[in-house]
Design brief:
Length: 380
């Protein structure tokens, strides 16, 4: 029979590893992961949804820029998951501190920590599910994910400001005399931190191969393998999902609107000067892969329609609906010689899933903006 606990405050946690120094050591790594994830996430958001004042200033070079930053975004987010769990493990005894609220200031501090923990857990796990393209919630992921990122960052900065005296005192791994304490509580701090580092390394190495080609063989648990896909390239949105069929493309012509509008058949596009570029598709879910693309430069099509050297472009897809059916392209992208209306992929005509008969491919650009099944190109 289990004896009842004696009355009074809850049992005190005495294990050395549930202390401020351990929490601070893990917090340094977690803070770095959050900082990288936040910075690259804001960059990704502005590339996908640029405000008007920024649209013509977004750089199209380096051509591999988005592949790097979005790969870092997803990798740092995945690495932050075991770090956050370890951080919570180190500090959870404080949830049972007695009395639970000592003052109005202490109540506000605990409330800010609750907001930080809840927002961080929400952000990491919804972001992880996004890499699998699984959305078991009723809200739109992109705006909510972006908004909560600011909540997490604000709550984190407030938490650091409030806890700065303790963080400053415990910022080094160990202080003189602490290593000599007996360890009836199991592994010492260095062993714990080594285990956390090993866990972070394991989840990173077994998922980052979707972004880093050289580590592709270690890509055991990432949601997408760039090594598999139609014409050697993965497909996120299929033609079936976009409700585009061969029958609906019968008699297809590219319409180019501008001061001198015109239309071109696929054969007429193929008869124009063709250019070949090697550019990566880099998707917001983290995977990326380079491929050879052949087609007509977008700037040549805009110029023929009367667009000057400062012309922007608007691209309209043939799909019936979709968040990115209409895509605006700033001046630096539209005028970059690497930006193509692509007709061929890796030496073959585009498959229907890759955007047949024509799609956009541009440098330093999120995959969702590499519009497939292009029906109209407009000079803006």
């Amino acid at each position: 029979m289990r004896l009842p606990l004696p009355p009074g405050p809850p049992v005190t946690f005495t294990a050395r590893l549930h202390d401020a120094r351990t929490a601070t050591a893990i917090g340094r790594w977690l803070g770095l992961a959050f900082a990288v994830c936040f910075a690259t996430g804001v960059l990704s958001h502005f590339l996908q949804h640029p405000p008007g004042w920024l649209a013509d200033r977004l750089p199209s070079r380096p051509y591999w820029g988005y592949r790097l930053t979005q790969g870092l975004h997803v990798a740092s987010g995945i690495a932050a998951v075991p770090l956050l769990l370890a951080k919570l493990w180190a500090v959870y005894p404080r949830l049972f501190a007695w009395p639970p609220v000592r003052s109005a200031t202490h109540a506000l501090e605990r409330l800010s920590v609750a907001v930080l923990v809840a927002a961080a857990l929400f952000q990491l796990f919804t972001g992880l599910l996004n890499t699998f393209q699984w959305y078991p919630w009723p809200f739109s992921f992109v705006p909510v994910h972006y908004a909560v990122a600011w909540v997490v960052t604000g709550a984190l900065l407030l938490h650091v400001a409030v806890q700065w005296p303790k963080i400053r005192d415990h910022f080094t791994l160990e202080s003189p005399g602490t290593l000599a304490l007996p360890g009836a509580d199991g592994p010492n701090r260095r062993q714990l931190l080594f285990g956390v580092a090993a866990a972070v390394g394991a989840v990173t190495l077994t998922t980052v191969g979707q972004s880093v080609t050289a580590l592709g063989r270690l890509d055991l648990f990432a949601p997408r393998s760039p090594a598999h896909g139609v014409q050697g390239l993965p497909v996120n949105r299929t033609a079936a999902a976009a409700r585009v069929t061969r029958a609906s493309l019968a008699g297809w012509r590219l319409t180019v609107d501008g001061p001198r509008p015109y239309a071109l058949t696929l054969d007429e596009l193929r008869a124009m000067p063709q250019h070949e570029v090697t550019l990566p598709i880099a998707c917001v879910e983290g995977w990326s892969k380079s491929a050879r693309w052949t087609g007509v430069r977008v700037r040549d099509l805009l110029e023929r329609a009367g667009g000057g050297p400062g012309a922007r472009a608007r691209v309209v897809a043939l799909e019936a609906a979709g968040a990115y059916r209409v895509m605006d392209m700033g001046r630096l992208y539209a005028q970059d010689p690497l930006t193509l209306l692509a007709l061929r992929l890796n030496g073959e005509a585009l498959s229907l899933d890759h955007g047949y008969p024509a799609r956009i491919i541009a440098p330093n650009r999120p995959g969702v903006l590499q519009t497939k099944w292009v029906g109209r190109l407009e000079v803006v």
